[in-house]
Design goal:
single chain, alpha+beta, Peroxisomal Thiolase, Chain A, domain 1, 5-stranded mixed sheet, 4-stranded mixed sheet, 9 helices, 29% helix, globular, Thiolase-like, ACP_syn_III_C
Length: 362
């Protein structure tokens, strides 16, 4: 049998910020609705309901001296050390993010130079053939970077690609919006490498969708819900109910299309790594996925979750989750050689994607 070229993850890294923010840290916040009215429930009631729905008990924020490109660099350095390769041999550096570098004392987003260029500079890479660019694709951006890397590798245009997801959502969260409790900061990275194999390994298939006709502004930037809050920038806003309802229908179907392309069934999957957006939503998505295959329930522990202690760090949730499992840092959740993993994500746009991945043996 003739061998084919596949994109295989050969190293991973992550950066988990040091500032731990508990749910009780929001007890003194003043929460408003989107009409500018103070919420009638007590903060204790709001926080209790929030924890029950999202599963979030704590999240991580970056310290004031760091921005997104800094933590992207930390994750990249970790991934390079994990892979044991020379950074000069990278063909591409893709950095998925949505808000650029935002300083603690100036909440304006910086996009020039590109965060990928800043990371390349931090890594002291002098090779001009290492192409560095940014990828804004909502929370699904890191996974879309994986898809693009697969195209480069399969086409023979790249041998090694570094894909990073980094975000500091704490810098664009409205302190007067209860949704702000969802958001967190973090960074994760993987290095994909071209491998020849006579059996399918690495990235097996992928699917991506953009539902912009009706859902383009489900996530958007807008003013604070507090009409008296003095500020000169916009905050991330979300129509959570609408996103939840659509994700519940579209994400399982997107995953199924990906599995169909790979010639797999849901029973062939060992782990489902889904964007850590909302525990209740992710559990419902998994249930709906198995129902598409006429299964009433899913295997225990097939879907590891970090949202309870890391929150929703957008593009960083998936690579961070993968890195923790890859390095044996996730209790009772390991990635076995030969296992088939499905990645899935959804975010602003509304964009959704899925990747089927087989971990090489040995």
């Amino acid at each position: 049998m003739d061998s084919s070229t596949y994109a295989v993850i050969v190293g991973s890294g992550s950066y988990i910020p040091t500032r731990k923010i508990l749910n009780d840290d929001f007890l003194e916040h003043a929460f408003y609705d989107n009409d500018g009215n103070r919420l009638k429930k007590t903060n204790a009631e709001i926080i209790q309901q929030f924890g029950r729905i999202t599963g979030i008990q704590e999240r991580r924020y970056v310290t004031d001296d760091l921005v997104a490109s800094d933590i992207a660099g930390f994750a990249a350095e970790d991934a390079l050390a994990s892979a044991g390769i020379d950074a000069e041999t990278l063909d591409y550096i893709i950095v998925a993010h949505n808000f650029g570098d935002i300083k603690a004392d100036n909440r304006r987003s910086e996009f020039v130079p590109a965060l990928a260029s800043r990371v390349k500079h931090r890594l002291t890479i002098t090779n001009p053939a290492t192409v560095a660019y940014d990828l804004p694709f909502g929370c699904a951006g890191w996974l879309q970077g994986l898809i693009q890397a697969d195209y480069y590798i399969r086409a023979g245009n790249a041998k090694r690609v570094l894909v990073i997801g980094a975000e500091t959502l704490s810098r664009i969260s409205d302190p007067h919006d209860r949704d702000s409790m969802i958001y967190a900061d973090g960074a994760g990275a993987v290095i994909l490498e071209a491998r020849e194999s006579d059996t399918p390994i690495g990235i097996l298939a992928h699917t991506a969708k953009s539902y912009a006709a009706d859902l383009a502004y489900v996530l958007r930037m807008d003013k604070s819900y507090n009409p008296h809050y003095a500020h000169d920038h916009l905050f991330l806003k979300m129509n959570g109910r609408k996103l939840y309802e659509y994700a519940l229908k579209a994400v399982p179907q997107t995953i199924k299309e990906c599995l169909d392309q790979a010639g797999l069934s849901v029973t062939d999957i060992n782990k489902v790594l889904i964007h850590q957006a909302n525990e209740k939503m992710d559990v419902a998505i998994l249930k709906s996925l198995f129902e598409l295959y006429d299964h009433d329930s899913s295997p225990v522990d097939i879907m590891p979750m970090t949202i309870s202690w890391l929150g929703n760090s957008s593009v960083a949730t998936l690579p961070t989750l993968y890195d923790l499992m890859y390095k044996g840092k996730f209790v009772n959740q390991v990635l076995q050689h030969g296992s088939v993993v499905v990645f899935a994500s959804m975010g602003a746009g509304v964009n959704m994607n899925a990747v089927a991945y087989k971990i090489p043996k040995g």
